Amino acid sequence: MPAKKRRRSAERNYVFLNVPYDSAFEKLYLAYIAGLSAFGLIPRATLEIPTSQRRLERILKLIEQSAYSIHDLSRVQLDARAPRVPRFNMPFELGLAVAQDARNRGETWYICETIPHRISKSLSDLNGTDVRIHNGTVRGVFGALCAIFVRKTR
User: Fold this and answer.
1) 21-30, 55-64, 104-113 — which is least confidently predicted?
2) How far apart are CA 146 and CA 140, in angstroms?
3) Rounded to whole angstroms, what are the CA distances from 118 to 37, 65, 109, 132, 137?
4) Is the dihedral of CA 139, 141, 147, 152 positive or negative?
């Protein structure tokens, strides 16, 4: 299916959220939901889909159905338990969104982070991409969302 048709089939107000789901990130997750809702957007996450489908298929379907995607890479870090390896799920999901959007030539995916310039070191292929820094705060998430979804009218 051509990319333009796929993007047209995306719900104009759906936003795929690629964020951590643990208790330490809960306040920021709720901030994303509240902030997107304030813009009249509908947050989508893999948590909402029954687990009878393979996880990768669920993620691809949500990305395809969404007009936008937000990828918070602030928690890409070494696991505290052995073996100490980083989890690459969130950067991988970002890559899926970028690949799907490559033919559309319109920016529909956005990156958020807590620390400035960390992405340029850990994922240098994204150099030149405007990463929104939220400093790990609810206020910072609201600011990042306001920078991404600028309204033309009040």
Assistant:
1) 104-113
2) 10
3) 28, 30, 18, 12, 17
4) negative
pLDDT above 70 for 61: yes
Q: CA–CA separation, 103 vs 124, rounded Å?
A: 21
**CA 98, CA 18: separation in Å to the nearest integer?**
13
Within 8 A by CB and 6+ apart from 11, the residues are 42, 65, 66, 67
Strands (E), the chain: 11-18, 42-44, 66-72, 109-113, 131-133
Residue 131 tokens, joined? 């990463």
**Per-domain residue ranges for the chain?**
3-148
CATH of 3-148, one of 3.40.50, 3.30.1490, 3.30.70, 2.60.40: 3.40.50
- Percent of the chain at pLDDT above 70? 88
First to last CA, the chain: 37
Q: Which tokens belong to 132?
A: 């929104």
Q: Please, are residues 97 and 104 in contact by the beta-carbon 8 Å criterion?
A: no
**Global pTM exceeds 0.70:** yes
Tokens of 66: 């969404």
Question: How far apart, in whole angstroms, are the C-alpha atoms of residue 107 and residue 33?
Answer: 21
